[in-house]
Amino acid sequence: MKTRSELGEFLRSRRERLTPEQVGLPSGVTLRRVPGLRREELAQLAGVSVGYYTRLEQGVSRAASPAVLDALAMALQLDDAEHRHLRTLAQPPRKVRRRARRSVLRPTVADLLATFDDVAAIVIDHRTDVVGWNRLGHALLAGHVDPGAPQEPSRPNIARMLFLDPHHRALYRDWRAKAMMTVAALHQEVARHPDDVALEHLVGKLAVASNEFAAMWAQRPIKICACAVRDLDHPEVGRIRLTNETLSLPDDDQQLGLFHARRGTPDHEALVLLASLAERRAADEPATVERPS
């Protein structure tokens, strides 16, 4: 899981997914002991020496010029997101590992969260720690934990809940798609924050605690989406389909996640109902409302 080997592991993962036929090379009649292209085949396609490419993949060297990275990206048939990730991984490593700082929810963002009445909102940092949420966001995603948990020393963590918390996992009918997107996001954050010890520990602990996480991490998914449709099975309002928009807060290195539905639809009515239940619960009032048919 060490960041210094991520460049080589990423190159290897993308090399192994290609076949000779995909890149215009003859497959030959010799049986291949490993999947994908051989190192010498990829080096030939990229116009670099086999020894040079081998040093990159084995983590012996990280010195690669932008031109070489572009050639490798073309040879590996990387998409734009993967190409950017390759460039990030090839940046010179930082020599100082700083102590992890706790992310803070900006007061103006907290005020913004409170303005969403029928939209579930949550703010997470680059480690997927929950920095804040509005009442509906808490009720939708983690009603089984204390609403004030983001202010506690040990915050809820979306990646950890997704793989290790059966209540949160059961929420997603498309759990694997959501899980792969989360792993992809973590891969990019590890590349962007190679000196973040807390992030490194999170990835390591998840890999030990979850075989599914370890398998997904080894695939090195990169592509993530800022907008997705989520089919949820909520314990209080049942099945609900929501649009999940993710907005970046670059000044804080945080992301604002919004879950919403078009007004007048049953899914929006379910959100309104859940908001009402959450408000009554917060006021210690009995909640016996039934979901509209």
Describe the structure.
By secondary structure, this protein is α+β, with helices and mostly antiparallel strands. It folds into two domains: 3-89, lambda repressor-like DNA-binding domains (434 Repressor (Amino-terminal Domain)), CATH 1.10.260.40; 107-282, Beta-Lactamase (2-Layer Sandwich). It is 45% helix and 13% strand. It has helices spanning 6-16, 39-46, 50-57, 66-75, 80-89, 107-114, 135-142, 158-164, 166-171, 175-192, 197-209, 211-219, 266-282; strands at 120-125, 130-133, 227-234, 238-249, 254-260. A five-stranded antiparallel beta sheet has the order 2-1-5-4-3. A hairpin with a 4-residue loop joins strand 1 (120-125) and strand 2. Helix 2 (39-46) crosses helix 3 (50-57), helix 2 (39-46) packs across helix 4 (66-75) and helix 7 (135-142) packs across helix 13. The longest helix is centred in the middle third of the chain and has 18 residues, at 175-192. The mean pLDDT is 88.
